[in-house]
């Protein structure tokens, strides 16, 4: 099969875990059926499938927004037709690790907003907590239904050169991307209808049903049909396609802040027949814009008085407010200690070694080795504001050091890890590109459920380690085998 024309440009990157090729350049067992299928397809056939995928993404409006782009606001999310494949055993390990981590992060949020035992016992420094801009004193001693703060988590995973899974970061506020996971699977069904059942690929389509079930369970009113809404910032938000998709799949109303009003500490939705009380809000509006009476007074995206209704238990909000203190990148390095502290267990999934630049010794070490580091803002996202030391000029490094010195606490550094590579279809050949994985975990009163798959993001530029869509990345369908 390696003699196929598709492999003429496939040269596994030295020092990198290749998802398809194993030792001695042998195709791994779980990729065999896919590769056999591809070798029976002509380049013209695969080009037609690739073109069909692009047309389906365009016609269905599967887009994302790049505010800084001069090419217009809406962009098609690039999709690679070759799936990323994960074995059942690999997935069982990942699933167990994510459940352990999410359980602990919920315990941490409950603790840090109430008794703060983890601070008193010296596990997490108090200054790290109180200097975090997303630690909200407004949430202290607020009763959260079932003590669940993180109802939806997107845990970013990478693999190193040995194939070991690492958690790159935790997304616990308003994690996005799940709609692309769902749409990628629907597109793949159109492209390879026979291949999915042949490979015994597990389904991801249950995600909206699981989420809806969890939202129903959080209703403060014990009524037959609680009112659930999805609160969106509006059409100019980068994830608006996702908001509309999830609202449609769950059969709930998609609303903006102007559609809701608070009266007598209860939230109501404006309808043509009058006000209707809202029980559960799946919000995609960030904390600081959620309630202009408590946070940003100039916000027009949220609802005045919603925090008062939330404190009194008259409405449930998903995810809980104030979760950012748990996914701050400066807090990330303490998660393994949290697992040991709360559960008396060893972490199943490893952290990437992390240096906090607010620590003078660690900052000095990072500055001396910055060409081997990736430096990030502790509250950055989307791949913005990062320094890739190995790919930066001396001038760029010096400018970045000056930014760090203004407020070192706002930065962390991690050694450059060679992300694993997977085959991508490009111009008639299979070519390796770097990838990561964001599985989505849903936490409800009955426990944590993770649909078998996730969003595999791809650094489409040759040699790039940055997979974010805003930085030129794309995605591919993620197959978990039975």
Automatic annotation (TrEMBL):
InterPro entries: ATP-dep_Glu-Cys_Ligase-2, CP_ATPgrasp_2, UCP005522
Top-rank taxon: Bacteria
Source organism phylogeny: Bacteria, Pseudomonadati, Bacteroidota, Sphingobacteriia, Sphingobacteriales
Any Pfam family: CP_ATPgrasp_2
Species for this entry: Mucilaginibacter gracilis
Name assigned to this protein: Putative circularly permuted ATP-grasp superfamily protein
Occurrences of domain Circularly permuted ATP-grasp type (ranges): 83-459
